[in-house]
Amino acid sequence: MSNSSDRPLILVTNDDGIEANGIQHLAACMLPLGRVVVVAPDRAQSGMGHAVTINDVLTMEKRSFPLEGVEQAWQTSGTPVDCVKLAIYEILGQKPDLLVSGVNHGSNASINVIYSGTMSAAVEGAVEGIPSIGFSLLDHSSNADFSATTPFISRITQQVLENGLPIGTCLNVNFPKLVAESIKGMKVCRQSAGHWDDAFDKRTSPSGSTYYWMTGNFNNPDQGEDTDEWALRNGYVSIVPTQFDLTAHHAISTLNQWDLK
Fold it and tell me: What range does the domain containing 132 cover?
């Protein structure tokens, strides 16, 4: 353990901002399991991926958190990855025993993991050698009902605390938008090979300038029954072991056949 207490130190963060209902739910799930510290963005930072702040100052402010038992709560002006770095090196002065991120309002399955601030916080935890988990619910509503996720969050977290995770690996956990009685269980999956077909809604402002809203449709040609998308469509919680090593190992032998002299 990282302190004299026999209770693990748990860092809770997210990308929807410290006011989001999802992070309050996740912190509540962690309280029975350890000492809880919350460090989160002061506003929504969805879609930030693994961005860090390098061209602006970072600020952080200690604040109250609407949940009794949380040891500390801080909001920062930075991205989710900034929150993890600030938590480790400025707020805690040590690495926590566990990092959990979320619960995100919306899916982070398939290709969404690349863009997700929620999952980038978990990946940053893995980079630091901290067992880390990102949790997401397939419901974008600010008033989403997270109650069905509680027993699964507790079970997965307990298993990670007891067993650890392979070095360089974090977990990407997604919940279907279902009542508890309709969730069939949990499945360890691979990431589905889906992608977004992007489009842009072009508009004109009252002043005559052009601006755009990004839209698009999710396209998933991957029909494998071992994927996160399949699990979620069929009423299961998906658990994908995720790594930050982006090396395409299968392509190394191909490139070694090129004339690169």
Answer: 9-192+223-255
